[in-house]
Specification:
Blueprint: H1 2-15, H2 20-28, H3 36-44, H4 51-61, H5 77-81, H6 88-98, H7 104-115, H8 120-135
Helix pairs in contact: 1-3, 2-3, 4-6
Length: about 140
């Protein structure tokens, strides 16, 4: 089971043309506890990522988290990844839903990651909303 999850993480990462370091760095922007060493250990099967971390990995790799679950039995990851691919709009909602944003640092990290994907017009709207919130303190 451990190697199965690790193999699927590795395949999905390679499918997206990312190195282990790149995947770890992208995940780290969402959750600072995700490191290169941890990612490597998950891929080689030394450890199993927790559910919330697996959800972040899935979101970054743009696949449904079910792709990594052991109950989904298949031998050829190339053949079976297609039904699990997701689009960009779903990714953002999955990240937010999967991440329990309890402390200020994780909230700031999530916002920082999200802001990079906004258009100039969307950023203007966000700034307006922030200024409104600041006035109502």
């Amino acid at each position: 089971m451990i190697n199965d999850i690790g193999n699927r993480i590795k395949f999905a990462r390679e499918y997206r043309n990312l190195s282990t370091r790149q995947l770890a760095d992208l995940c780290n922007k969402i959750d600072a506890s995700i490191t290169y060493n941890g990612m490597w250990q998950w891929e080689v099967g030394r450890r199993i990522p927790k559910a919330d971390v697996l959800s972040i990995i899935a979101s970054v790799l743009k696949v449904q988290v079910q792709y990594f679950l052991p109950r989904e039995h298949f031998n050829d990851p190339v053949e079976k990844i297609s039904p699990y691919l997701i689009d960009e709009e779903q990714i953002e909602s999955d990240i937010l839903a999967s991440k329990d944003l309890k402390n200020k640092e994780s909230k700031i990290s999530y916002i920082s990651h999200s802001i990079k994907q906004l258009s100039s017009k969307q950023l203007d709207t966000l700034i307006e909303q922030i200024n409104i919130l600041k006035k109502h303190r």
